[in-house]
Amino acid sequence: MAGWLSLLLCYAGFAALACAMPRHFAQLTGRRGAPLRPRLWQGAGALLLALSLWAALDQWGRGLGLTAWAGILTLAALALGLLLTGIEERAPRLLLVLPALLVAGLMLAAA
């Protein structure tokens, strides 16, 4: 279950880091211009990525946890990268749906 949590946190962290960039901010919000408080977005993204590392280390320990986290980072970045480049017009809706599906999966796994 911590693996799914780590994936969700990585995805949210990368989404927050993307919101700190003007191009991706415009894609995600539909507004032109610079993002509001980019340092806040960067800090939130870094915090979420650190929390995802903590979840992976808590689940698998140091050796396997770091290796698993590297794979989880890759999957989350690939998912968000494909979303932002492939289907730009649907990105804001899908950014909301994907984490909701992951949370639903976590709830089903816990039951």
Condensed summary:
This protein is mainly alpha-helical and 111 residues long.
How would you characterize this protein structure?
By secondary structure, this protein is an all-alpha fold. It has one domain (2-110). The protein is 86% helix and 0% strand. The chain is built from four helices and no strands. The chain has helices at residues 2-19, 22-29, 38-86, 91-110. Helix 1 packs across helix 3 (38-86) and helix 1 runs antiparallel to helix 4. It is globular, with a radius of gyration of 14 Å. The model has no long low-confidence stretch (mean pLDDT 79). It comes from Salipiger marinus. The chain crosses the membrane at residues 40-57, 64-87, 93-110. Keywords: Membrane, Transmembrane, Transmembrane helix. This is DUF3325 domain-containing protein.
Quickly count the helices. Answer: 4
* Domains, number: 1
Rounded Rg: 14 Å
Series of H and E elements: HHHH
Uncertain runs = none
Beta-strand proportion? under 5%
The tally of strands reads 0
Helix/strand layout:
Layout: H1 2-19, H2 22-29, H3 38-86, H4 91-110
Helix pairs in contact: 1-3, 1-4
Note the main attributes of this structure.
single chain, 111 residues, mainly alpha, globular, membrane, DUF3325 domain-containing protein, transmembrane
